[in-house]
Design brief:
The protein is α/β, with parallel strands linked by helices and 700 residues long. The strands form five sheets. Strands 10-11-19-16-17-18 form a six-stranded mixed β-sheet, with helices on both faces. The protein has a five-stranded parallel β-sheet with strand order 6-5-7-8-9. Helix 24 packs across helix 25.
């Protein structure tokens, strides 16, 4: 028999301070769940809030296996009516105190905190008592180590002198990027700390552009976060909170990212010089190691910057020296022993359910994701098809993926990102996840929301579509659970900030341009890319819309070309570099707004010129792909022929997915008849009702 959460009837009086906190939490929770109404005199404005609260209470009941009831009123509608919320949030918002039925206030607390009012106040009291004990008895800092880079040594010395002279604290200094004056690796430094010892970490542009400093800091915060947070106070230099490299601003973060990307380009140029000089293998090995380390920095630096930016224990350098004068002022800023915040049981269940068997072990593939599907490598089938004029044409068929397209691979990476976001909640005093926005023509949005639904990630993808998009696709996007927004996408190229603004997601994450999740663009389709290379084709035809898949395949080719110089390939690489160097990769695209290849047309492709430059580099400077590797526009008359062949072969497709086959027919006279040819079918999105039914059956 299920346990019950019994809400009591009877009137209670709530004071202004508690009401203000509760109103703030209701608004925060409401907006995090996608709500955007203003709370004013209009009663209908509270309907969406009631709906979100009802859904949240159902989540609590399901996750904790309980029933929520009002005492002696089992059939009563638990969620308060619109009038209650208007009185609480609008009409009486400035009252010194208010009286309500206790069960109505308990519902608000359950929505905000997952606990009844009494349980939440008892929890807060316990935290307050623990905090008081730590503050009054344990927190006597015996020593502070001021850690900086060599270029910030003078600022570090000023900080040390200030703390010593003003507060009588024992000070030591260390220089992170100096073997002579550092205290070993960053992990060594923290492992050797005793109780009552703290690190003042001076974070500057110089620090974040130093390879060893940044790499060690990423490793420390990724694998030893509790230890790091317990003993670290960040002192931020002016060059990272103002100007071009402001880490609190998206443009500043992009500039920092650009610096590391330029480092990668420089390494690649060095590689070309080594190849021309025919250096020994050891040179290539050192270069490969540095390349991998910088790539890791690029992949992880966003999470690191988020941690520094959101840390409660930080201060600007100038404020520390000029505004802190009393011991208690400093004490309130310094970290207490890091305590993990509890997250809701439903989020904990979601976190545990998102399992990543491995990142690159073909014996332990990660896609399609368990427990809802059976992971395998290759994840999709490849089989022979008959194409007139050619002897050996293979089709890689992505239509067998969960929602029927290759976008499921991208969706899985988004779910992995949410796993890390859930983990981060344990170190923050909040329990809501950021929402994500994306421009989509349907397939990506449906794939992402489908996995959100299966894994019970409590968010709705915010999708921006062109106002001319097919009405059935719009309906499907809404039906699967996304929030739909429309505009004229042909009018201008939207930035990430504009996409978030147009989807009411100012403080969320835009994943349209990928940089937030994976700046190097080779994680969404890395497994699929290795599956493609596994077939060892002479010619490979790939649909080209945003270019993510096509360019990712070329990225993997280049990586394995580099790896060949040190004889150490990725475990998923079952091809041969000599074969790949002869293979031409052909992107099939279109520049016609009225094309049947509707999923491939875009009014703006901001990266197209850089993509073409990249392709020339691979062909002419590295010589690691075939000479016909390029992006081609497909003539519409060949689209009809491709559709006829695909229909005869009983392939599950939509026209855009057959762009590669259409391009093969267009280039028939240029491709040798006996070549080994691979056509990538990106698939066709399944009927949304079928996906909803799958979700219902699996989770029932």
């Amino acid at each position: 028999m299920k346990q019950e959460i019994i809400l009591k009837s009877g009137w209670i009086k709530v004071d202004k301070e508690e009401l203000e906190r509760l109103r703030y939490q209701i608004r925060e929770k409401y907006e995090s769940e996608g709500g955007n109404k203003k709370f004013n005199a209009h009663l209908p404005n509270y309907e969406e809030l009631r709906e979100i609260i009802i859904n949240k209470l159902h989540e609590i009941e399901e996750a904790d296996d309980v029933n929520i009831k009002i005492q002696d009123m089992p059939e009563y509608d638990i969620v308060p009516g619109n009038t209650f919320f208007r009185n609480l949030l609008y009409t009486n918002k400035y009252s010194e105190s208010l009286q309500f039925q206790e069960y109505n206030i308990d519902v608000c607390y359950l929505f905000c905190y997952g606990k009844r009012r009494f349980d939440q106040k008892r929890f807060e009291k316990k935290l307050s008592e623990e905090s008081h004990i730590i503050t009054t008895t344990e927190r006597k800092w015996k020593k502070i180590i001021v850690s900086s880079t060599l270029n910030n040594m003078s600022e570090a010395e000023k900080i040390g002198s200030f703390l010593k002279d003003k507060f009588g604290i024992t000070i030591e200094t260390e220089i992170r990027n100096s073997q002579s004056f550092s205290k070993g690796t960053l992990l060594d430094l923290y492992h050797n700390l005793e109780s009552g010892e703290l690190v003042f970490s001076v974070i500057s542009r110089d620090y974040l552009q130093n390879e060893s400093c940044t790499r060690e800091l990423i490793d420390m915060t990724k694998h030893h976060l509790d230890l790091y947070l317990s003993h670290t106070f960040h002192v931020l230099m002016k060059d990272i909170y103002e100007g071009d490299f402001n880490v609190f601003d998206s443009l500043g973060r992009s500039e920092l990212l650009k610096y590391w990307k330029l480092r990668i380009e420089k390494l690649e140029k060095n590689h070309k010089l080594l190849v021309s000089d025919k250096k020994e293998k050891e040179f290539y090995r050192k270069l490969r190691t540095e390349f991998d380390e910088i790539k890791k920095i690029i992949e992880e630096i966003h999470d690191l910057l988020d941690l520094i930016r959101e840390s409660q224990h930080k201060i600007y350098y100038e404020i520390l020296l000029n505004k802190i004068s009393e011991p208690q002022e400093l004490e309130t800023l310094l970290p207490k022993q890091a305590k993990l915040h509890s997250i809701s049981s439903s989020l904990e269940t979601t976190y545990k359910r998102i399992k990543i068997p491995s990142t690159n072990n073909p014996e332990k593939p990660e896609f399609p994701p368990e427990p809802f599907y059976i992971p395998k490598f290759p994840a999709s089938k490849t089989f022979k098809i008959h194409v007139p004029g050619f002897d050996n044409v293979l089709l890689k068929d992505e239509s067998t993926n969960p929602t029927g397209t290759h976008k499921d691979r991208m969706a899985w990476e988004v779910v992995i990102k949410y796993k890390s976001l859930i983990e981060s909640l344990k170190y923050k005093n909040q329990d809501s996840l950021p929402q994500m926005s994306i421009i989509s023509s349907g397939s990506a949005a449906i794939a992402i929301q489908h996995l959100f639904n299966l894994f019970k990630i409590p968010t709705r993808l915010k999708v921006l579509v062109d106002h001319n998009l097919n009405h059935n696709i719009k309906d499907s996007i809404k039906q699967i659970g996304c929030e739909l927004y429309e505009c004229n996408l042909a009018e201008k190229l939207l930035t990430s900030e504009e996409i978030k603004s147009r989807t009411d997601n100012k403080n969320g994450i835009d994943i349209t341009y990928r940089e937030v999740l994976d700046p190097t663009h080779d994680n969404y389709y890395d497994w699929m890319s290795y599956e493609i290379l596994h077939e060892k084709p002479d010619y490979c035809f790939i649909p080209f819309g945003t270019g993510d898949l096509f360019i990712n395949v070329l990225n993997i080719v280049k990586i394995e070309y580099f790896n060949s110089f040190v004889s150490k390939h990725d475990p998923r690489f079952f091809s041969n570099v000599d074969i790949l160097k002869k293979c031409s990769f052909l992107g099939a695209s279109t520049n016609l707004p009225s094309t049947r290849l509707d999923k491939l047309f875009s009014s703006f492709l901001p990266s197209l010129d850089s993509f073409k430059k990249y392709i020339v580099e691979l062909k002419e400077e590295y010589d690691c792909v075939g000479s016909e590797t390029d992006i081609y526009n497909v003539d519409e008359k060949y689209v009809d022929k491709a559709i006829d062949i695909a229909s005869y072969e009983k392939i599950n497709f939509e026209p855009s997915g057959m762009a590669g086959l259409a391009l093969l027919l267009q280039l028939e006279k240029q491709i040798p008849k006996k070549s080994r040819i691979l056509i990538v079918n990106t698939g066709r999105t399944r009927d949304v009702n079928e996906l909803i039914e799958y979700n219902r059956k699996f989770l029932s």
